[in-house]
Amino acid sequence: MSTPAANPSSQSFQVLAKQWAREIAATARALATPSCPASDLEQAGLIALWRAALTFRSRRGPFDHYFRRAMKRSMKRERERVAPFTVAQHDVISLSDEELEKVSYEIDPFSDAKAVAEWVDHLPARLAQIFDLLYRQGYTQVEAGGIMGVTQGRVAQLRARLLGRGRVELGELAA
Predict the structure, then answer these.
(1) pLDDT, tens digit, for every residue of 84-129?
(2) What is the pLDDT of residues 14-34, one digit of tens each?
(3) Of 85, 71, 89, which is closest to residue 31 (Cα–Cα)?
(4) Using CA atoms, how far apart are residues 100 and 31, in angstroms rounded to an integer?
(5) Torsion of CA 106, 112, 114, 117, to 10 degrees
(6) Which of 7, 92, 155, 159 is deepest in the core (most CB within 10 A)?
(7) DSSP category for residue 105
(8) In terms of C-beta density within 10 A (0-12 exposed, 13-18 middle, 19 or more buried), how is residue 129 classed?
(9) What is residue 33's three-state secondary structure?
């Protein structure tokens, strides 16, 4: 495949989308699951291409590396976003009406998310910032370090501290 020009923002998005269509489709097929079809992942890939074209700066390296990383990250996020709901729907569908009535009062499908959100709210500011940059906004450690004004190694140390603290304080949720 020919690599697009070094400054993709100077090209129309349609031209850029045509250049990357095969790779986006192939990656989407490779990452597709029954709960998250390739068509959904292709849309996530196109959105990642659009964002990459808008945010790319040559100091970050070649556009193709920058975009491929962003595309895979975006597709994996989409797949993870869809997965919990599909499992919950499958579990509910397989229950009888009587079982469903009993369970519907006992289960809060968002209790884990609520527990994690509460935990993050009580973290020290630096660890909460690491959580936000790496897990909510999807920055790499290098990008997060640039935003925070620290090295990637320091971000890795803070991330390790964050994960260790999470395992201890969240108990079974972290398992």
Answers:
(1) 554 444 444 555 555 555 544 444 445 567 777 888 888 999 999 9
(2) 888 888 889 988 988 888 887
(3) 71
(4) 33
(5) 170
(6) 155
(7) T
(8) middle
(9) strand
